Amino acid sequence: MTPLIDVQQVNKAFGGLQVIDNCSIRVEKGSITGMIGPNGAGKSTLFNLMAGALSPDSGRILLEGEDITALSADQRFHKGLLRTFQIAHEFSQMSALENLMMVPPQQAGENLFTAWLKPGLVRREEAEVHRRALEVIDFIGLHHVRNELAGNLSGGQKKLLELGRTMMTNAKIVLLDEIAAGVNRTLLGDLISNIERLNREMGYTFLVIEHDMDMIARLCDPVIVLAQGQVMVEGHIEDIQNNPDVIDAYFGAGAA
Ligand SMILES: Nc1ncnc2c1ncn2[C@@H]1O[C@H](COP(=O)(O)OP(=O)(O)OP(=O)(O)O)[C@@H](O)[C@H]1O
């Protein structure tokens, strides 16, 4: 089967430092794939290459078999490749619900000509976005804070809202970068179950970078271990936890 994401022999250097070194990974459709590795292994750089925030020096990145290496981050977003983002400062003064309503790309109302020529269409689209945002806020369990300013939400609630924003689009794969950081255990449980439901009920594929091993163990299969810009090993979490090379890589780098 064609993998959803296929990173083929990608290289990226910063100055003289080869951060991603002839790296190939595949993310299968329908999986929640984890990516772990010691500090400085190149995980965030690889995410940036996949999301289109960085260009590789060589190699290719395919999305459902299509070469997207030359596409911008925005073009990749429209193809359903999403990366969660911190809520931007300017959105902190909007309510949680309004933050969700900001997301859908290509709203007719954003186009002045459409607004002028087809006001009925714009109103229908806005009503649809509002209806969808209410559904999403229920799904992520934030109905009770829907009218709170996003800036007043707790760290964990902001992460849930980030996840909700991905649901306002037609995501195929969501790249989650350290989403557990700073989230209390109760809300982390909510996040994990929401990710599982999105995967199971809505067919989302996830690639998850995480230092929190509990979260990786509960959520991810398979798990890819990156070290020095290369895949060291890939497999079930139990096999990885007992792999002497992985233990060495972690202790050697002094990481958690
Ligand atoms: N824009 C950049 N310019 C120069 N060096 C960079 C840049 N981005 C990353 N690096 C270097 O590339 C290496 C890999 O960094 P990266 O952030 O991808 O690792 P990581 O595995 O995500 O680490 P961590 O787990 O600590 O977040 C590090 O040595 C880092 O200093």
Question: What is the structure about, briefly put?
Answer:
With 256 residues, the protein is α/β, with parallel strands linked by helices.
Describe this structure in words.
The chain has 2 domains: 1-80 and 170-256, P-loop containing nucleotide triphosphate hydrolases (Rossmann fold, 3-Layer(aba) Sandwich), CATH 3.40.50; 88-169, no CATH class. The protein is of the alpha/beta class and 256 residues long. It contains 10 helices and 10 strands. The model has no long low-confidence stretch (mean pLDDT 87). The site of adenosine-5'-triphosphate has 10 residues, from helix 1. One of its GO terms (molecular function) is ATP hydrolysis activity. InterPro entries: AAA+_ATPase, ABC_AA/LPS_Transport, ABC_transporter-like_ATP-bd, ABC_transporter-like_CS, P-loop_NTPase. Residues 5-253 form the ABC transporter domain.
Task: Sum up the structure in keywords.
256 residues; binds adenosine-5'-triphosphate; 4-stranded antiparallel beta sheet; 39% helix; 10 helices; globular; Rossmann fold; alpha/beta; single chain; 10 strands
Outline the fold blueprint.
Layout: E1 5-14, E2 17-27, E3 32-36, H1 43-51, E4 58-63, E5 66-67, H2 73-78, E6 81-83, H3 96-101, H4 112-117, H5 119-139, H6 155-167, E7 173-177, H7 185-202, E8 205-209, H8 213-219, E9 223-227, E10 230-235, H9 237-241, H10 244-253
Parallel strand pairs: 3-8, 3-9, 6-7, 7-8
Antiparallel strand pairs: 1-2, 1-4, 4-5, 9-10
Helix pairs in contact: 6-7
The protein binds adenosine-5'-triphosphate.
Number of helices: 10
Instruction: Name the CATH superfamily assignment of the largest domain.
Output: P-loop containing nucleotide triphosphate hydrolases
Number of domains: 2
How many β-strand runs? 10
What is the CA–CA distance across the termini?
35 Å
Order of helices and strands: EEEHEEHEHHHHEHEHEEHH
Helix/strand class: alpha/beta
CATH architecture heading of the largest domain = 3-Layer(aba) Sandwich
CATH class of the largest domain: Alpha Beta
Q: For the report, how would you describe the main beta sheet?
A: 6 strands, mixed
User: Which hetero ligands occur in this complex?
Assistant: adenosine-5'-triphosphate
Strand content: 15-25%
Quote the average pLDDT.
87
CATH overall fold name of the largest domain: Rossmann fold
Shape: globular
How much helix is in the residues? 25-40%
Which radius of gyration do the C-alpha atoms yield?
Answer: 19 Å
Which stretches are low in confidence, meaning pLDDT under 50 for 5 or more residues running? none
Q: Going across the major beta sheet, what is the strand order?
A: 6-7-8-3-9-10
